[in-house]
Amino acid sequence: MTSPDTNVGFVLDSAQQTRVAGLMERILDELPQGYSVLIDRAGRIVNVCHEPVGVQLEALSALSAGCYATTNELAKVMGEEEYSLLFRQEDDNQVYVWPVADRALLVVLLKTSRGVEMLEERLGGPMGRELVAMVRTAKLPDRPTPPPRIVIEEIPYEVRTRTRNLTALITSLQTRMPEKFNDEIKRVLLKAREEIIKSITAQDWRRTMGVCEWCRQWLFGQLNLSATVEPRKILPRLYIEVFSYLHGVLTGFISSERLTDLYRKTYTIVAKRRPWVCLSDSCVTADGIDARILWERAAEQYSDIMQLAREFVPAVDEMVRELVRVVYVGRGGEGRNRVLQGAKEILARYRNELLALGLEGVAGEGWLLLNIKSE
Amino acid sequence: MAILQEATKEVTCKIVYHGAGMCGKTTSLMYLNHHLPKSQRGRFITLETPTERTLYFDFLPVITEARGYKFRYLLFTTPGQDYYEATRKLILKGADGIVLVVDSQRNRLTENHSSVEILEKTLYELGQHPDLMPRVFQYNKRDLTDIVPLEEAERLFNSRHALSFPAVARTGQGVYETFLTIAKMALSKLTSPEGESRMGDMFKSTVITADESMKFKLNLARLNEEAGAAASLLVDESSGLISHRGEIPMKDYETLGALLACNFTAAQELSFNISHLGFTGILQRGAKWSLTASRVDLRRFLVVITEGYGDQRRLRNALGYSRGILAAQLHQVDSMSPSRLRRFGELFSSVSHVAISDMAGGA
C-alpha cells in the first residue's frame, strides 16, 4: 500500500486512511484477480489495494483521470449528470472507473470479465455509499484555490467592482489595524476568498456577490466597526465640508453672482451624466452645492442605502472635479494642487468612519472618493 | 492529420499548443475564445480539474468559411506538468501544426528547454520527424520584468529557425498573429503533397470523396438498425468526427467527436499500460444514455449511442460486422488519399489564403 500523496485534492487522516483501505479490500473481496487504485480527480494516487505488477501506476492514474475528465464532459454534452466507465478487452482485462463523490475516482482492474456485475452491485450498495461518504468528509489540503480560469472581461462589471472593493477594504483594514487580524479572522477570510474564486469559476455571479457582502459585514462585526456609522450620516457631512472649503477658495477670485451660476452649471453637467442621483437642483445655493439635500432627494429613489452610496460618491466627486478644474483655470497648477491637498486633509479626518463603511481606500470604477487625478 | 471531406467541402486540421506548465497555453485559447466572433468558434472545453493546471487538454474549435469551403481548426493544449507526460503524448498525435509557447521569464529557462526537448522526443516516438512538423514559437509573458531578450530566446530555443512572435497571452498581444501563422502553415503543408508524403503514418491526411461519405453513412445507418442504437459515429483519434448517423437530442456532434477522440485515445494508452493490448470496447454508462466505443483500425473507432444499457449481445454482433466493412473502406480511403491530395493542392492553396484573410478581418 502506498502512502497518500500530500498534494492530492483531499486529505485523509490515518483513521480514515485505514478505513478506506479496509473498504477497498472488501470491495475487491472474492473478485477474480482484482486490484484497485483510489485517485483524486487530477490523477494523483490516494491509495492502492493489491498493487498490480508491471503497471506504471502514475501513468495509469493520469490516464484514468484524463479519460474520466473527458467522460465527464461527454456526460454534460449528453445532458447527463455522471457516467461510469468500463474498458473491455474481450474476456481478459477489464478496467472499471467509478466516480467517488465529486472528488475522486476508483479505478478497478479485473483480469476477467466475470465480476463486473458483482463489482457494480457493491459500488451501488452500502460499500460504495460508505466510500463516497468518507471521501466527501475528507479535509481539503492546506493550499489556496487556484485563480479562476476565466478572462476578466467575462466577469460582469458589478461583480468585478464588488470583489475589488472588498479586496481594497481588507487591505486597508489590515494596514490600519494589523493587531486585530487574528488567526481566526485570517482563516475565515481565506475561506471566503476560496469561495469567491470557486463561484467566479462556476460563473455563479449571485453567489460571488453574496459572499462578498457576507464577508464585508462579517468583518465589520468582528472589528466592531459597523454598529455606529451609517452612510447617510457620514457621506453628506464629508461633502458639505469639501464644498464649503472649495467655496472659500473660489470666492477668492470669482464674484458671488458668477459663483452661483458656476455651481448651477456644474450641477447641470453632472446631472446629465448621472440623472439618477441628481434629481433636483434645489441643492444648488449661493454657498455651493448642498450635499445633504442632494442625498435626501436621491434617497427617495433608493431602497438599498449602500447602492445609493455607490452612486452618490462618484456623482459628487465629479462635481468636485469640475470645481477643481475652475481653480486650475484661475489659479494654475499650484492652486489646484493646494485645493486637492485641502480636500484630502478633510477626507483624512473622516478616515475612521469611512473605514467602518468600507469606503476608505476605495478608488476605482464607481467609487472615486476624491481620488482626482492630475490633468 | 487533416481530414478533407469532398461531400461537405470541409477541411479539419489539428493545432496543438505545447509548452511548460503555466506558460500561457490555456490563456492563449481563452483569449481566442473570447475575442473571435461566435460564428468562427465552437464550444471551448476546459476539463474540470481541482488545480489550475491542464489535466489532459483544453479544446477550442475555430471555424472559417471561404469559397464554399469550411475550414475547421481544432485547437488543443497539452498538459505542461511532467506528471501528465502520458496524456501529453496523446494530444500531439496527428497534429498538423504546433505552437510552442515559451515562458519568457529568466527563471523558467530550464522548464522551457525541457519542454522543447520533450516535444522533439515525443514526435520521434510518434514516428514523426520534428523538422517536417509546421511549428511557430510564441514567446509569452513579454510584459513581465526579468525576461530573456528575444534574440537570446531565439538562440536558446529556436534552433530550427521557425517563425516566432512576442506575446502577452493575458492581454492577447501576439496570440492572434501566432494562431494565424500556424493555421496558414498547417494548410500549406496540406496543399504540398511532397511535404504530406513525408509525414509519419499517424500524421498523414485523409481525403474522403462524396461517394465514400455516402457509403459511411449507409453503413452507420445499418449499424444503428442492427444494434438498436439511437446514433452512431465514426471518429478519428486525432481529428474527431468523420461521419455520423442517427438522432440524439443534443446535436453538438463536433464537440462530441473531439471529446470521444481524446477519450478513446487515453483509454487505449491505458490499456497498453496494463497489458500491451488495446481495448476492444469501452462502455460509458449514464442514467439515460450509454456510449459503446470499438476500434475499427489503427486510427479510427466507432461509437454507438444507445438509450439505457441496450442489448449488449446484439450490439456486439452488429459492431463486429460493421467494423470489418468500415475498416476495408477506410483502408481504401487511406491508399487513395495521397494521389487525391495532389488533385486538391492547387485549389486549397488559393482557398486557404482567402479563409485566413477573412478570419483576420472578422476578429
Describe this structure in words.
Chain A has 12 helices and 7 strands. Chain A has helices at residues 14-28, 57-77, 116-124, 126-137, 157-176, 183-201, 205-222, 231-250, 256-273, 291-299, 305-349, 351-357; strands at residues 35-40, 45-49, 84-88, 94-100, 104-110, 284-285, 288-289. In chain A, the strands form 2 sheets. Chain A has a 5-stranded antiparallel β-sheet, with helices on both faces. In chain A, a hairpin with a 5-residue loop joins β3 (84-88) and β4 (94-100). Mean pLDDT of chain A is 79; it is low at 1-7 and 361-367. By secondary structure, chain B is an alpha/beta fold. The mean pLDDT of chain B is 84.
List strands and helices in order, with pairings.
The complex is a heterodimer of chains A (375) and B (363).
Chain A: H1 14-28, E1 35-40, E2 45-49, H2 57-77, E3 84-88, E4 94-100, E5 104-110, H3 116-124, H4 126-137, H5 157-176, H6 183-201, H7 205-222, H8 231-250, H9 256-273, E6 284-285, E7 288-289, H10 291-299, H11 305-349, H12 351-357
Antiparallel strand pairs in A: 1-2, 1-5, 3-4, 4-5, 6-7
Chain B: E1 3-5, E2 10-19, H1 25-35, E3 45-46, E4 58-66, E5 69-77, H2 85-92, E6 97-103, H3 109-125, E7 135-140, H4 150-157, E8 163-166, H5 175-190, H6 193-197, E9 206-208, H7 210-227, E10 231-236, E11 240-246, H8 253-275, E12 281-285, E13 289-295, E14 300-307, H9 312-362
Parallel strand pairs in B: 1-9, 2-5, 2-6, 6-7, 7-8
Antiparallel strand pairs in B: 1-2, 3-4, 4-5, 10-11, 10-14, 12-13, 13-14
Helix pairs in contact in B: 2-8, 5-9, 7-9
